[in-house]
């Protein structure tokens, strides 16, 4: 009697391929998050271009669904209706549809359009806020003349600024009429916060810049050659120690 040969089973996938697919699945969330982070770090133009690249195909797909639900419309009319609903053009109506299917497609396009608009608004507002914050906390060159430059920051800086403010209140004193620019090797935001919270400086405009007072570039930054007064304060002990350490270099053990 003839014995039927057993049917050959399908070959199992190689172990290496299975391992690669499993690794790809595990790395997908991290890669997606990393790619999104890289995109968000780009400029406004790149973000808007990416948003447009996402919106345009959706408008085409939505227009195709509208065309399928309403065969009487031309392709141009279906695409235009998808566009006005997705981007929320004033006057666009997502409820005036002849069938339930067309109504569902139009409302889905409207909801996606709201999400895209919120994303666009968030991107633009965030970039504008960052630009304004960069201007506010920037270390741009001071464009002043006949001002007072105070170099270095220590425990006497704020009392000195208060004395300058008191001198400005004297109508016979014309020496400290301009603004005061503080140049120190200290974080600009920290200096601004200390000056803002200190009382008695309401009638004097204080500008801060971060830099080394002994540097010619930093002195040009605060327009020291155009100043009426240049006041040199002793730096803090920590600043002196850091400077000495940088100049002497590491010592051999």
Short description:
With 253 residues, this protein is α/β, with parallel strands linked by helices. It has helices at residues 15-40, 44-69, 75-86, 100-136, 157-168, 188-197, 216-221, 237-248, and strands at residues 148-151, 180-184, 206-210, 229-232.
Question: What structural keywords apply?
Answer:
single chain; 253 residues; alpha/beta; four-stranded parallel beta sheet; 56% helix
Give me the side-by-side strand order of the main sheet.
Answer: 3-2-1-4
The shape, in one word, is: elongated
Helix content: 55-70%
How many strand units? 4
**Helix segment tally:** 8
Q: Alpha-carbon distance between the termini? A: 93 Å
User: Which residue ranges are poorly predicted, with pLDDT under 50 across at least 5 consecutive positions?
Assistant: 240-244
| Category from helices, strands and their pairing | alpha/beta
User: How many strands, what sense, and barrel or not for the largest sheet?
Assistant: 4 strands, parallel
Q: What is the ordering of alpha helices and beta strands?
A: HHHHEHEHEHEH
**Rg from C-alpha positions?**
33 Å
Give average pLDDT, whole number: 81
Q: State which percent range the strand residues make up.
A: 5-15%
